[in-house]
Structure formats: structure tokens, C-alpha cells
Amino acid sequence: MIPDRFIVTGIVVRVVFLFLQGNVLENLMDALLGGFAVGGGLLLIVLLYEKVRQKEAMGGGDIKLLFLTGLFLGWQRNILCLLIACVLGIVFAFVFPEKRTTGDEAEEEDGKLFPWGPSISAAAILTLLCGSE
Questions:
Q1: Is 19 part of a structural domain of the chain?
Q2: What does DSSP assign to residue 95?
Q3: pLDDT of residue 114
Q4: What angle do CA 65, 50, 101 make, to 5 degrees?
């Protein structure tokens, strides 16, 4: 669960930093493109998947968090962040596999999702530290 107040706080902080960085228009365009290209693109993929499969594919908090990382990282580094988050999520799923149950509960567990937010957060930090040219 990623509370909306964290996302809103991040957006407010980013707006403040836009004015502190200088070259506001160029940084604003890069931030918006980073947020909408990755967050919006992923949202479209998830909506299409959910329409076809008739089941939830991803929580909305993950998409909002990727939108927020795009505001800070820009579109190029946010794509890198997305790729790193996917790798970290896969590693996390293998290191901490879910315990399956038997009977009726097992059928409900098949589509269970694991939290991807920590992977996105770790990927954003790695991208900030190591994602430059």
C-alpha cells in the first residue's frame, strides 16, 4: 500500500525543486515526460491486461510511484528505473517465495500479487546513484 499523501508530497517537493534548479521549462518537460511516458505507458498495459484477463494485474500505488519517480528522474532514467525494478522484483520473488496452501485457498492464491513498491524505491535510489551517462 502506497498512501496518496506520499505521492502528493513527492509532487509538491518536485515542483519546489523545479524552481530551485533553474531552466524551469526544460526540466518541467523532462519531468512530465518521465512521469507520463513510463507511468502512463504502464497504466495502459495494465488496463489492457486486466481487460483481457478479467483479473487485477497490478496495484495503482505502483503505477503512481513510477509516475513520481519519472518526475524526479526524467524519461530516460525512469525507463532504467523500471528495468531495475523489474529485475529486483524478480530477485525478491525468488529469494522470498510465497508459501502456497492447499484446497480452496490455493485457487485464490494463484493470482496473489507481491509488493513491488520496495523494488521500485530501491531501483529509484540505484538509478539516482548510478544512472548517469
A1: yes
A2: H
A3: 74
A4: 90
Task: Determine the Cα–Cα distance for residues 15 and 98; give it in Å rounded to an integer.
Answer: 39
Grid cell listed for 85: 525494478
Give pLDDT tens digits for 36-76.
999 999 999 999 999 999 988 888 899 999 999 999 999 99
Domain range holding 37? Answer: 15-97+111-130
* Domain membership flag for residue 43: yes
Domain count, the chain: 1
Q: What sign results for the dihedral spanned by CA atoms 76, 78, 79, 83? A: positive
Tell me how far CA of residue 117 lies from CA of 28, 66, 73, 121, in angstroms.
Answer: 25, 9, 17, 6
What is the DSSP annotation of 44-60?
HHHHHHHHHHSS--S-H
Q: How much is the pTM?
A: 0.83
- Reduce the DSSP state of residue 28 to 3 states and report it: helix
Confidence of residue 96 (pLDDT cuts 50, 70, 90): confident
Distance of CA 46 to the CA centre of its chain: 12
Report if residue 87 sits inside a domain: yes
